[in-house]
Amino acid sequence: MWEKVPGEETYYLHVFHKKQPDLNWENPALREEIYAMINWWLAKGIAGFRIDAITFIKKDQDFSPLPPDGIDGLVSVKSKARNRPGIELFLNELKQKTFKKFSCVTVGEAPGVPLEEYERFIGPEGYFDMIFDFHAADIDVENGSEWFRECDWSVKAFRETLFASQLAFTRAGWGTTFIENHDQPRALSKLVRDADYQNEIGATALAAMYFFMHGTPFIYQGQELGMKNFCRSEISEFNDISSLDNYDRSLAEGFSAEEAMGFVNRRSRDNSRTPFPWSDGGQRGV
Question: Positions of the region Disordered (predicted)?
């Protein structure tokens, strides 16, 4: 979205929150500043980088309008700003001028990359050592940013999606495995739909499932405790901007307030951002 700069007749683009202006990667001087910063840290001896939302750095330069895809009259920025042609020039330059000079590990958060392009990202000449695959992570919704468009997924479909990603990783190089992160609800609540098994039994099954797959497993904070979603009764209890937006979008799309709260409670990123449930019991309650 374009945001007006206060007191000026200029605007800036932000794919995410308005407090996160997008950098103009078309500017060579800006890219060199980024590379200098990365090299400064690598020279200090850090082990590597997790590169967030890296597939959003290239935007189509025609800035042409698109028809709205929602009742709010807006259109998703993804078709113009995610994994767009020309991004390979930026990513290859990034690798050549930074990561390749050091013994480090790189993990790219790369939504929107088709399985057939994995070799370009993590192959022998790939941009990163690993990337995060989101095909299975968003199996419960049509896309990761519109939670009210839920999918009635099955275990069979989940398995087939995982297998397809695993084969793509195996053909291309090395990958990652994960079932939780800061943008996802708790896996125990999302993937284990029978409440009787949303406990150590279900948590152990999920851990065994993805720890025995091809790739480096990533554990998100609280996952080791088997934490579940935290149900809220009012939208005012949410802090996550995506939760607030999805609630408003759900109402605009014709869903009731109760249905909108259901979407947000099931999918909110705030579910993975709650405090650890410490207590004064044995092992601090764990």
Answer: 266-286
CB 210 within 8 A of CB 179: yes
Provide the whole-model pTM: 0.91
pLDDT tens for each residue of 68-84: 888 888 888 899 999 99
pLDDT score recorded for residue 143: 84
Q: Which domains does the chain have, with CATH numbers?
A: 24-232 (3.20.20.80)
- Token pair for residue 38? 């990365």
Reply yes or no on whether the pLDDT at 249 is more than 60: yes
